[in-house]
């Protein structure tokens, strides 16, 4: 019952958040300079065609009317069509306004769904890498506060967080792909193309994990139940794994919920560097081309993921530690 | 809390510490760490170099010199010279000088953005925590919404359609980055507002504005400001990302982002054009982050009453 209450409350809150996000992005894209109708038909089209297109898209209606219409489409799962990208995947940049290839535009939802698996693969692998990098450093630091392990974690965290991800990407690509020829780095033709970008992302998020782990483990090791654990006949490795790490995983989960935005932001940049055909490259190209429906769709989609994952994080935390309330 | 004070009183040398405000104790605590001093020295030296050297150098960071193009950095390959410690780019421009000028813009944008984020975020957070009720709900939902859009999407969307000048970049990054400050300030305000002295002020008839500005803000903000250094570093990275995508301050003004983007085209025959500025930025930011993390540790220790 409590669970149901919690879910209903959080989902409602999430919907409010999504409503605010969608309105903010919608309004933002309407006030910036640039006439969507002109963008769609191209610079060479006569003015009548532009006017006709604007009428067709309902661009002359007040913003609120346009927004409500957009919400209506959204509720039916329709995120609109791209301004530029045709269904076939070919570019229409140079085609004349009456070229038939300009007519069939790709649906934003399809464009997103097509790319989301690759982006999730990248994000997932980077979280795995980040945990592999952070666990030894963070746990060792947490178990030995003030000793060299602590300093090592502190210093490596400070260096990792100072590494600009795009630069690290360029340097590693140069080193591993061009000099050594071990790993591919441009485009996507198989799983191995995910490794370098995921590693770059992992370096970006590991400082936060190292820090959270070392702080929370150091704190937990002072708790009474850790002090009495040896009296219960538990060996140290078991104490560390079953008690310290298990309890430290809750702040870690919360951190994941909060840092998700940073992870996704990093994904965009890293995808651009490695020419990785995921959501990030789609978004950045859409921004550079002013393809408003795509920007809008991606922003709402990402916010939805963010809201969903944060609900999931709270649920998971309460399963790990039943003392927590919903 | 009280037994900590007793132990400090019993301890003669720390008597003087009791007279210090928490903020002063935090500064003292931070300064006593090696990491803070190391970071401080690195950062201040580089910043000093950035402020002074370009003024006195006879070379111009944007001046091209065909005869000295593609000179490698010190001890790296043929033809290096002391005149160009980090080498030169494809147009013969000195990379060291360009990095120093880039650092000026980067630090300026970083600091200005954090100040903006701090005031907007803490202002809304204090208001939200202090007022409660509907104000709180509205501000917090906006905060949630803002947090759920990655800053980079917002920044490139706005900067992609308007001209990316320094004030525009500061405004966009500042307005995208305030929510975390709002959350921290709100929870601190919630904890503080139940305390006796605030209640007392209210009984005395102080207005909300007066209580927030005169009592809440001075009690809450210093510890938050203490960790803002870490955000200066992360905004500096953001600024370089924007420059790299082409949405930062525009060339010919050198910024880390546009130098690296430029150098990327010459990776095969001149690896240093893209690599050296990144290294330079990495060292600067490491200095800054060492300071920031040491300050964060110091704050946590002081707030826990250990120092």
Describe the fold and architecture.
The complex is a heterodimer of chains A (326) and B (307). Chain A is mainly α and 326 residues long. Chain A contains twelve helices and two strands. In chain A, strands 1-2 form a two-stranded antiparallel sheet. In chain A, helix 7 crosses helix 8, helix 10 packs antiparallel against helix 12 and helix 11 runs antiparallel to helix 12. Chain A is globular, with a radius of gyration of 24 Å. The N and C termini of chain A lie close together (11 Å). The model of chain A has no long low-confidence stretch (mean pLDDT 83). Chain B is mainly α and 307 residues long. Chain B is 73% helix and 0% strand. Chain B is built from 14 helices and no strands. In chain B, helix 3 crosses helix 14. The N terminus of chain B is likely disordered. The chains are: A mainly alpha (326), B mainly alpha (307).
């Amino acid at each position: 019952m409590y669970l149901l209450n919690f879910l209903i409350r959080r989902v409602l809150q999430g919907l409010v958040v999504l409503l605010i996000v969608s309105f903010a992005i919608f309004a933002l894209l309407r006030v910036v300079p640039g006439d969507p109708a002109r963008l769609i038909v191209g610079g060479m089209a006569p003015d009548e065609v532009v006017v006709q297109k604007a009428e067709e898209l309902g661009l002359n209606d007040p913003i609120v009317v346009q927004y409500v219409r957009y919400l209506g489409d959204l509720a039916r799962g329709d995120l609109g069509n791209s301004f530029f990208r045709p269904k076939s995947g070919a570019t229409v940049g140079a085609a004349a306004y009456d070229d038939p290839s300009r007519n069939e535009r790709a649906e934003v939802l399809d464009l997103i769904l097509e790319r989301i698996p690759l982006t999730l693969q990248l994000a997932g692998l980077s979280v795995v890498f980040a945990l592999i990098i952070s666990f030894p450093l963070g746990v060792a630091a947490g178990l030995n506060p003030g000793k060299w392990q602590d300093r090592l974690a502190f210093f490596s965290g400070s260096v990792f967080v100072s590494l600009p991800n795009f630069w690290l990407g360029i340097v590693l690509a140069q080193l591993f792909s061009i000099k050594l020829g071990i790993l591919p780095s441009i485009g996507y033709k198989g799983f191995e193309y995910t490794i370098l970008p995921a590693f770059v992302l992992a370096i970006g998020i590991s400082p936060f994990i190292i820090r959270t782990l070392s702080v929370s483990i150091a704190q937990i090791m002072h708790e009474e139940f850790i002090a009495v654990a040896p009296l219960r006949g538990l060996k140290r490795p078991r104490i560390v794994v079953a008690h310290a790490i298990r309890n430290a995983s809750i702040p870690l989960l919360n951190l994941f919920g909060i840092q998700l935005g940073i992870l996704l932001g990093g994904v965009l940049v890293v995808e651009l560097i490695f020419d990785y055909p995921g959501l990030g490259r789609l978004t950045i190209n859409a921004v550079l081309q002013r393809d408003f429906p795509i920007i809008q769709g991606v922003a709402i989609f990402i916010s939805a993921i963010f809201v969903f994952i944060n609900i999931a994080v709270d649920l998971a935390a309460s399963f790990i530690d039943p003392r927590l309330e919903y | 809390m009280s037994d900590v004070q007793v132990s400090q009183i019993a301890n003669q040398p720390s008597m003087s510490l009791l007279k210090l405000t928490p903020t002063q104790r935090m500064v003292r605590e931070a300064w006593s760490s090696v990491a803070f001093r190391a970071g401080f020295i690195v950062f201040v030296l580089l910043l000093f170099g950035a402020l002074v050297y370009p003024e006195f150098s006879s070379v111009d960071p944007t001046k091209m010199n065909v005869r000295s193009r593609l000179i490698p950095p010190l001890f790296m390959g043929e033809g290096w010279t002391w005149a160009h410690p980090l080498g030169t780019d494809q147009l013969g421009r000195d990379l060291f000088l360009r990095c120093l000028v880039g650092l000026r813009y980067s630090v300026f944008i970083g600091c200005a953005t954090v100040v903006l984020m701090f005031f907007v975020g803490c202002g809304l957070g204090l208001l939200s925590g202090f007022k409660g009720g509907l104000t709180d709900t509205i501000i917090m939902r906006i905060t949630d919404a803002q947090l759920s859009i990655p800053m980079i999407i917002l920044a490139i969307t706005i900067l992609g359609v308007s001209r990316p000048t320094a004030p525009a970049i500061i405004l966009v990054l500042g307005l995208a980055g305030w929510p975390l400050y709002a959350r921290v300030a709100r929870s601190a305000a919630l904890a503080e507002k139940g305390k006796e002295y605030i209640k007392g002020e209210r009984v005395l008839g102080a207005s909300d504005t007066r209580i927030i500005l005169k009592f809440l803000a001075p009690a809450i903000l210093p510890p938050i400001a203490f960790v803002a250094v870490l955000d200066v570093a992360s905004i500096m990275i953001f600024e370089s990302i924007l420059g790299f995508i082409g949405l930062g301050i525009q060339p010919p003004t050198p910024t880390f982002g546009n130098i690296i983007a430029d150098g990327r085209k010459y990776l095969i025959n001149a690896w240093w054009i893209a690599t050296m500025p990144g290294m330079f930025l990495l060292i600067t930011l490491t200095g800054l982050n060492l300071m920031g993390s040491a300050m964060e540790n110091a704050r946590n220790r002081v707030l826990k009453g250990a120092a």
